[in-house]
Amino acid sequence: MKFLAYLVSGISLGSIYAIIALGYTMVYGIAKMLNFAHGDVIMVGGYISYIAASNLGLPPLISVLLAMAVCTVLGITIEALAYRPLRSAPKLAVLITAIGVSYFLQNSALLIFGANPKAYSPVVSGTLQLFGGQLSVSYVSLLTVACCIVIMVGLTLFTGRTRMGKAMRACSEDKGAAQLMGINVNRTISLTFAIGSALAAVAGALLCSFSPTLMPTTGSMPGIKAFTAAVFGGIGSIPGAFLGGILLGVIESLAKAYISTQLSNSIVFAVLIVILLVRPAGLLGKHTQEKV
Amino acid sequence: MKKLNLSKGARTDLLTYAGVILAFIVVSTLKNNGGLNRSQVGLLVPICCYIVMAVSLNLVVGILGDLSLGHAGFMSVGAFSGIITAMALAEAIPSAPLRLALAMVVGAVCAAIFGFLIGIPVLRLSGDYLAIVTLAFGEILKEIITCLLVGVDENGLHVIFNYNGAKNANDLNLAAGGRIIIKGAQGATGTQTIASFTAGFVLILITLIVVQNLIRSRQGRAIMAVRDNRIAAEAVGISITRYKMMAFVTSASLAGAAGALFGLNYSNLAAAKFDFNTSILVLVFVVLGGLGNIWGSIIATVVLYILPEALRGFANYRMLIYAVVLILVMLTTNNPIMKGYLASLREKLGKRSEKEANEA
Lengths: 292, 360
Fold this sequence. Notes:
A: ABC transporter involved in vitamin B12 uptake, BtuC, two-stranded antiparallel ribbon, 11 helices, globular
């Protein structure tokens, strides 16, 4: 029964990673850049929903929607101001700019909200008792898993069925050719950033409900872990990000419970390294033949 | 005066050495005459360490062309192995400079061993996958060191790998008079600070000699060939793994030596200092200084390390300003119009210096 409890907590933690990783993988798929600022958008989402809920007294759902709106605008702004001018620049320049944006967001949050951690009240409270009280599952966990599945299915349908989704896939395949086919590449990339940032806001609210402390650096480690999850599942692949996120969460939770709390991140990263050695493109990633 | 007939590369190398030596003479004169205040003197050794870090990372990122996000991990290995060496030999070798040198050598060797072990899986990957795996190794090294308990007494070293947090320093069973060197998450405590600016200068010179000679050698050209076109390099018989490993291990060992110097500059040092952010910090130095440009790395390190200190007057806004500066520099240096302007400026300067050289 204990094992089951750890498994459940791992799956819900993994669902948060998966939501972040879905945003990450979409942005990576289309912009081909490591967006280190993604983790900080999560933190901004957390703060906005915190302020909306505790200072303005809005209901949880409205505060999360507000956070999504703010983060969407933030994501589009970051892309337009910092990343768009560097579209043809070397990859490393974009990476350093993303790091600059990450520092900027963290330090802005530090100035506005202060360094003291804020106590975040979960979006839903209460727990569900199963097996006569032997296994308790919080409603936050259930909500997280449900959100994650809905988002994953929604994104799969969106990229597979809709015109904008097809445009997105075309842009990630070949930007030049997509432009020749009449696709507005800049608008498509903006849309991708908008979706990724909105997902980050949802993840922010869920993450803070799960571990209720909010600091300017709250987003960085989950951001890195979610990126690891995206690579784990095969970066650019939506089901891959989902699978990678869940697996990462479960491994982390079980490692914490049975092996060592101090080394839990190391175990997660070690599994990532092994997976990449066996399957260099990740679990569900496409292996691309190198052109000579 | 007889005109020296040097290639452009050799001239740049000599100018780099001359610049570093000149800077050392100026700074140490200032220091000895009280021209620097306490906090400025405190910056000297870390700057030297970060210069070595940046130059060695440039070898991997700029010359080999692989993005490494775990360079601080090697610094960490060097720092803690160096601290253990220096503290364990405190009685055996009374001379502090000799102990420091030995600690740096041990740090370099340990980091090189880790560089080799990590290089085996890492160098099979490429691009962003390689980046994420180096990041992963950096975090793993940090957590492993956080679990270490190390002490020394007359019977030798006592080491415990405290992986589940159940043990503490008393479990080391040190004899009376023994010293605890590393205390888990607290890191190294009570270290004798034997690092000196002169040692930092010597380390920079050694780093420059190693890196610049490597770049200008046959091996260096092979490494750059791997960077420019892996397949073409393989086709002409260059062993990819061998040269990648050569650059990676050299870079790791230099970072280890820098780490040992860094570690012996502070009486307390936690492993958490060498996290992902430190790797990023060094990467920023390398990219802003120019990929593959050694003196660029040195100047960028000095400027960017001093910048946040110089902005102390702005208190909380300094890191915000730093972030904005970082973004703006990246945007302007990669702007096509600015790029064209810089190129024409460089051409003009180049022509002028050539003319001067001809006239001289």
